[in-house]
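Example: Thiamine-phosphate synthase.
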Amino acid sequence: MSTRARLDLSITLVTDAALCGERGVPAVVADAVDGGVRVVQLRDKTATDDNLLRQLEALAVVIDGRAALLVNDRVDVVVSARERGLPVHGVHLGQGDTAASVARELLGDDVVIGLTANTPEHLATLRRMPRRDVDYLGVGVIRPTSTKPDHPPALGIDGFARFAAEAELPCVAIGGITLADVAALRHSGAAGVAVVSAICAADSPRDAAEAFVAAWSGR
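Written out as structure tokens, the predicted fold is:
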């Protein structure tokens, strides 16, 4: 079964090297996956191609097949990683990145493609696209967040619920999400939540991940 078919979007970790600090991204990812994270998105806006590939090599080792591994923005890096045989499962694209249709042609049908979307205009564009091009939407921000200072106006949980009701794809909530938001987001139609600082900056990424998993499952 392909990664697309069995993708578990419930808890996604989006990495941030600065928030991971001296522990390093691989160590934080290892702990988070131990705690139940099911998607890891490598996001590093300043890294070179070679650096991203080295990071992906390290993450593939610590993940060891237990979570899907995606790259933020960089379709070219995903192509290179897969040519090297690295278990990289897909890419998450912003509205200003490579078009999803181009990414699908470059990467093929077995690769996961996520797309940031948060406005009615984005939804209108998606309805004109082939259904195969995008697997899920990253929708936010839910609350203002310092990890993305140029973010659009916060949707809040009610705004997310309205967006998800109109979308024809699974929607993952992102942006300033706390444990207290998880149950409400799931009840509002979220296919999952994506977090950055709540795990990357935690004293114990594993404990933080376990807490998000428990909140998602209603425990």
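The CA atoms of residues 174 and 194 lie 5 Å apart.
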